[in-house]
Amino acid sequence: MKQRKINKAIIGRRAKEYLESNRGLKGVLKLYRDVFSIQKKIGQKIPDQLPHLKGGEISFRIEEGRRLIEPDELEVNTAVLREMMKELGEVLKGEDSKPLEKLEDILADDEEVRRLTEAFLEERDGDDTHGMAESGIEPEILYMLMHIAIAPFFWKQASTLSKKADLGQVPQGTCPVCGELPIMGFLREEDGLRILECSLCGTRWGIPRMMCPFCRTTDQKKLSYIFAEGDQSRRAYLCEACKRYIKIRTGGGQGIEEMVLPLEDLATVHLDNAAAERGYERGCRTVFS
Ligand SMILES: [Zn+2]
Ligand SMILES: [Zn+2]
């Protein structure tokens, strides 16, 4: 599986293209770029480490349907994480500092940062944020901050593992490396495979085209898609069986693998709205949620 390639230059270039076709994206594209550059900058301080799994163990876990990074297998350096949370917090505060005014107290308390890290890692499964309560910050906002602050630790650990794993056919709606939900996907035309990208560790994996990734139904009578008039290449695939949907970008030829899916996600909110109006729930995470 060819993994995503993103850096500041690629994101800057792509963001400019999205902005040219929709000026209304200005604020959110800037936010994404600011967040990414902090993740990259401070991410360089994450210490190198040897992979915690060897080749045989990697394929064994994939076959078993077990994630490659269990919650207790992610190495989080608290000092680096705290710096990441501080700078990302500043960016998020940009417009309204009130929701994050307690952040400083949290960051001054090593024990609390560790507790929140554990709560985040343990609770991603149930989408339950109760471990985030009692911190003085809205659990949803704190969860999002933890998500973008911990992501670079996952990027680093996932990138060595995904190279050694066979991720071409993993028919599931959660990331085979870290267990998180995807952000969205695209259609690889050469073999008709759908490629999903993890919203947390960024790993890409392939699932069959005619299958709902969330409930895994292949009943074609239950699967359909919608698109905006005049743009068939961007679709929301709806599943009648579980009432969830996933956005898939099609077309784009060879260059489609270069797509920056978080940007594509931000640029296709109209599809989210259209699917929600029809009563479908988003099966993926968004960039900022
Ligand atoms: Zn992942
Ligand atoms: Zn389904």
TrEMBL record:
Database matches in Gene3D superfamilies = FdhE-like domain
Q: FdhE central domain spans which residues?
A: 174-209
Recorded GO MF terms: ferric iron binding
What cellular component terms from Gene Ontology apply here? cytosol
Coiled-coil spans in chain: none
Q: Name one GO biological process term.
A: protein maturation
Entry protein name: FdhE central domain-containing protein
Q: Which lineage is the organism of this entry classified under, starting from the top rank?
A: Bacteria, Bacillati, Actinomycetota, Candidatus Geothermincolia, Candidatus Geothermincolales
